[in-house]
Design brief:
Blueprint lengths: L22 H11 L1 H15 L3 H7 L1 H9 L12 H18 L2 H8 L1 H20 L4 H29 L5 H26 L6 H7 L2 H13 L4 H6 L3 H12 L5 H14 L13 H15 L3 H14 L3 H30 L1 H26 L9 H19 L2 H11 L3 H33 L2 H20 L12 H6 L3 H5 L2 H9 L56 H7 L2
Helix pairs in contact: 1-8, 1-9, 2-8, 2-9, 2-11, 2-16, 3-4, 5-8, 5-21, 6-7, 7-8, 7-10, 7-11, 8-9, 8-20, 8-21, 9-10, 9-17, 9-20, 15-20, 15-21, 16-17, 16-21, 17-18, 17-19, 18-19, 18-22, 20-21
Length: 572
């Protein structure tokens, strides 16, 4: 299996990148992507077991008693319990907390060590939850699961973005989301199969989380660390050999030089450099994209679809089956994202997905508001089918847009100076608002009823506007050359550059690849690769914007030399 390396020409060395999509890099990406199974399996299992009477009787007896005692109560409020919500959401609070420990761990042991710790933590959490005797033990288990998910969700998207060749980065990175959706789907069918295994069916469902955890744990031991991470820790020659292996060619001088130079530049920047004005676009994206991803309302479906369909009168058995149908749509649509993301680009999918999700939630709110009888708990069968159909369409729209791209885009638009901190912020924000949604949704459904879906539709509208006007297209742009997009963007160029710098950049007097450090190095001043010198890899003597044997400065980016692809990427 091989594919030629075709990347967007951003000036500098990007045009000289060589490499193939080899079976080895695909295998490595598949193993690393198993980190998504952890997240997905927990998402799928949690909402299902919360509807198991045996589970509720042990840990949330007040919910079980309330449901049994008063069938005439408001069905929207039948699951409204802060303790029950806490069981779901504590994982995300834990994940947000532990994600900030990944930076020091990465600097010491690399991205693969973070993934190993993620698998180990999830193993411990699965065991504790499966054998829990009281709520305290159950919550401690959830905290361990959260640590595992926090480590995995921080490391795996970055690992995939760094290990993948630029032209296939989107497809390989989306494998993480595909693994997440497969985890959700498998978990939903396991719940469907264990719901009538009394009294310990829920223990089987929860305990099987050990399986994806051990896959990630063992898999992370055998795969290599990324060349970027190896260079950052001083293993320059090993990084070179790893890059040759994953690219399927010894001709990696240009890409390796960019990695080494970016690492050298990062040593002059403190770890909180992302707060500086020149990094304002990536900081904004690192916060807004995960915030918007959670405020699509997708987790209201992933967590609580079973309870929603139960509320609508389907019964527990049919509710679990409907949830599994949504899970199947989720998996199929994510596979479609893998096919399309490096063909159509990120923005097309994000905008189309946003429009589709907005329409679907407005329809769901209208049908629920117009046909669901709270007093009798009755909804016409055709109305219930309409809700299921539009929740499937919503899930499809999310699964080929904000689901995978909510992780892909933040992992690829950082340079090496901001990548670790930026991804930690992304994971923290994602988990923090997952916690907020998980804790608030059942109460929102009780108080706002069908208006809950209008609330999320509003945020979907806002995020679509953000993508259209403020997010450049990153398709095909090498990860260490990404900064040029912000300097060409109609809005962000005004934020990160002075008018004088913008004028110089437009005239071609600023080095295109210099955007990675935010400097304004004149084009005629060559920059060396620092620690790349003297390495047997053949990087010796390469300067920024040159290739071996080329005239220094010959490859400096200018408006004339920047391809139409990048011009299109950054014009919005």
């Amino acid at each position: 299996m091989a594919g030629g390396m075709i990347v967007a020409d951003v000036g500098g060395r990007a045009r000289d990148y060589n490499g193939k999509v080899t079976w080895y890099v695909v295998l490595v990406a598949l193993i690393a992507s198993s980190g998504g199974l952890l997240f997905g399996y927990d998402l799928g299992i949690t909402g299902g077991v919360e509807s198991f009477p045996d589970f509720l009787a042990i840990f949330f007896p007040e919910v079980a008693l309330a449901q049994a005692a008063d069938k005439s109560a408001d069905p929207y409020c039948s699951y409204d319990s802060q303790k029950l919500s806490a069981f779901t959401s504590v994982l995300f609070l834990s994940g947000a907390f532990f994600s900030f420990f990944t930076g020091p761990v990465t600097r010491i042991g690399g991205r693969k060590l973070v993934m190993i710790l993620g698998g180990a933590s999830f193993c411990v959490g699965a065991i504790l939850c499966a054998f829990a005797q009281d709520l305290a033990m159950l919550i401690i288990g959830r905290v361990c699961l959260g640590a595992g998910v926090g480590f995995a969700n921080q490391a795996v998207p970055l690992y995939l973005s760094e290990i993948a060749p630029a032209h296939a980065r989107g497809s390989l990175n989306v494998m993480f989301q595909l693994a997440t959706t497969i985890g959700i789907w498998v978990a939903e069918w396991i719940n469907y199969g264990t719901q009538n295994v009394h009294p310990h069916g829920w223990r089987i469902s929860v305990g099987l989380a050990f399986v994806p955890a051990i896959i990630l744990f063992l898999g992370s031991i055998i795969i290599p660390d990324t060349p970027n991470s190896l260079v950052a820790r001083g293993y320059v020659e090993k990084a070179r050999l790893t890059l040759e292996r994953v690219r399927g060619t010894p001709d990696v001088e240009a890409e390796f030089a960019d990695i080494v130079e970016a690492n050298d530049n990062s040593k002059t920047v403190n770890k909180w450099a992302i707060s500086q004005k020149k990094y304002r676009p990536v900081l904004t994206g690192a916060v807004l994209i995960p915030f918007f991803q959670q405020f699509t309302g997708i987790n209201t479906i992933m967590f609580y679809a079973t309870q929603l369909f139960d509320v609508l009168g389907d019964g527990a058995n049919a509710a679990l089956l409907n949830t599994a149908i949504i899970g199947a749509v989720n998996v199929g649509s994510t596979i479609l994202a893998i096919v399309l993301v490096d063909r159509l680009g990120r923005k097309v999918l994000l905008v189309e997905g946003g429009i589709q999700m907005f329409i679907c939630f407005v329809v769901v709110a209208g049908v629920m508001g117009g046909s669901f009888n709270k007093v009798t708990g009755y909804i016409p069968k055709n109305s219930a089918s309409t809700i299921l159909a539009f929740e499937c369409l919503f899930t499809a729209g999310f699964a080929w847009s904000w689901g995978p791209l909510g992780w892909l885009v933040p992992s690829e638009f950082h340079n090496i100076e901001t990548r670790g901190t930026g991804q930690a912020i992304t994971v923290c924000v994602n988990f923090l608002f997952s916690f907020v949604i998980g804790q608030a949704y059942l109460t929102m459904l009780c108080k706002m009823e069908y208006g809950t879906y209008i609330f999320f539709a509003f945020w979907v509208f806002c995020m679509t506007i953000y993508v259209i006007f403020f997010l450049p297209e990153t398709k095909g742009v090498p990860i260490e050359e990404m900064g040029i997009l912000w300097r060409k963007h109609w809005f962000w160029s005004k934020v990160i550059m002075t008018p004088e710098e913008r004028a110089a950049f437009q005239k071609g007097d600023l080095l295109g690849s210099g955007v990675t450090t935010g400097d304004v190095t004149p084009a005629h001043v060559p920059r060396t690769t620092g620690s790349a010198k003297g390495v047997k890899s053949g990087v010796t003597g390469i300067t920024a914007g040159t290739t071996p044997g080329a005239t220094p400065g010959a490859m400096v980016a200018s408006p004339a030399s920047i391809s139409n692809t990048v011009a299109t990427n950054a014009k919005y």
